[in-house]
């Protein structure tokens, strides 16, 4: 496991250990010893998997304080465009997004700190997406940013994604800024 800085403070790409031979492959998803070597100290509390059809966007989700979450995300099979938006109001990169292709073959993950909205676009059929979370899932504190908010201007490369009703009805970054009751 190797931790790689991104252009956004506290957001890291994780390069996973991987081995392949004539039998197939083996990937280490998370290692407590490597976590300590990389100065990551997170007691993850929940693991999740999702399977998505091609052109599905899930997100951009975040939870309001005090139920914010830290996430480690990776793809086991398939490919996604993974996207995070910095919602930390005192951050130099507030309102900016970072995107990265994660796939079952590039063996990368993303370590997402509290205070970010997260989502992804499935680029292949039946993509298996892995989430490792710290912080309790609290639906009453969960919000969704609008996937096509023009103020954020995410380059998804798609105009008509498959969305849940919740994701269709997200708020804009401007609505988030104007709301004093929503603080990621």
Explain what this protein looks like in three dimensions:
- The chain has 3 helices and 13 strands.
- By secondary structure, it is mainly β.
- It has a single domain, classed as Jelly Rolls (Sandwich), CATH 2.60.120.
- A 6-stranded antiparallel β-sheet has the order 1-2-10-7-12-5, with no helix packed on it. The protein has a 5-stranded antiparallel β-sheet with strand order 9-8-11-6-13, with no helix packed on it.
- A hairpin with a 6-residue loop joins β1 (2-5) and β2 (12-15).
- The longest helix is centred in the N-terminal third of the chain and has 6 residues, at 32-37.
- The mean pLDDT is 92.
Assembly annotation: single chain
The succession of helices and strands, N to C, reads EEEEHEEEEEEEEEHH
How many strands appear in the DSSP assignment?
13
How many H/I helices?
A: 3
Coarse shape: globular
Q: β content, as a range?
A: 35-45%
CATH architecture: Sandwich
Total domains: 1
CATH class: Mainly Beta
Main beta-sheet annotation: 6 strands, antiparallel
Classification by helices and strands:
mainly beta
- Give the N-to-C terminal Cα separation: 28 Å
Strand order in the sheet with the most strands: 1-2-10-7-12-5
CATH topology: Jelly Rolls
Annotated CATH homologous superfamily: Jelly Rolls
Task: Please tell me how large the radius of gyration is.
Answer: 16 Å
Percent helix range: under 10%
Q: Mean pLDDT, rounded to whole units?
A: 92
Low-confidence stretches: none
